Structure prediction request, 255 residues.
Amino acid sequence: MKIAGAVALVTGGASGLGEATVAMVVENGGKALILDRPGSAGEDVARRLGAQALFAAADVTSAEEVQAAVAKAVERFGSVHVCVNCAGVGAAMRTVTKQGPMPLDLFARVIAINLTGTFNVLRLAAAQMAQNPPNEEGERGVIINTASAAAFDGQIGQAAYSASKGGVVGMTLPIARDLAGLGIRVVTIAPGTFDTPMLAMLPEDQRQKLAAEIPFPSRLGRPSEYAALARHIIENPMLNGETIRLDGALRMPPK
Prediction:
């Protein structure tokens, strides 16, 4: 699918991987709806990128709010051709601590945002894509989800996060098969350790330690590198039903 002229809905688009993806879409002639939380920098990002970008405040776990965001994209830009799910949260806690078992609410919140939220957004975006006329390849849309290296190499304290991202990996192929008849592709990116706002809160010595664990290149991943892979996925019609690790050959140790 050509990015020029396409409309992308990007969750978590106000910062990090999502913001880089929004910028990539606009720079290549597409239009983007930034879906992020109220109070995020989404409005500022949209203003900076100009008329080809639009912000919609929404909770990815809310069917009503996401549907309203999809409708906003259609009203402004005419349709939705690409959906990139970058919204997510992390939580670090052992299953059992000195204070007792991990609170179930914490586990459920991570699953709700990272896994259920991803499915909520993609199902509503796919329903809109199904109304698009097919291009010369028969495509009507492309969905890109974000998992994590933690889906495969979960560290101590990452039970909730790894479960949520493992779920994203696990649903990639069946959803691609579900949507194949509609001409909608589904691919997941599993990033390693990237230089995002979440990691920016860490002390510099910890950031350097994380970077040193990556075989090559021994540095944190750049959001622009995630966006570059997203671009290739959008443009390569044979990529479908697959999870691609983007981690510099990192295999995370237990802790």
In short: The radius of gyration is 18 Å. The first strand starts at residue 7 and ends at 11. Helices lie at 16-27, 42-49, 63-77, 104-129, 159-179, 197-200, 204-212, 223-235. The chain has a mean pLDDT of 96.
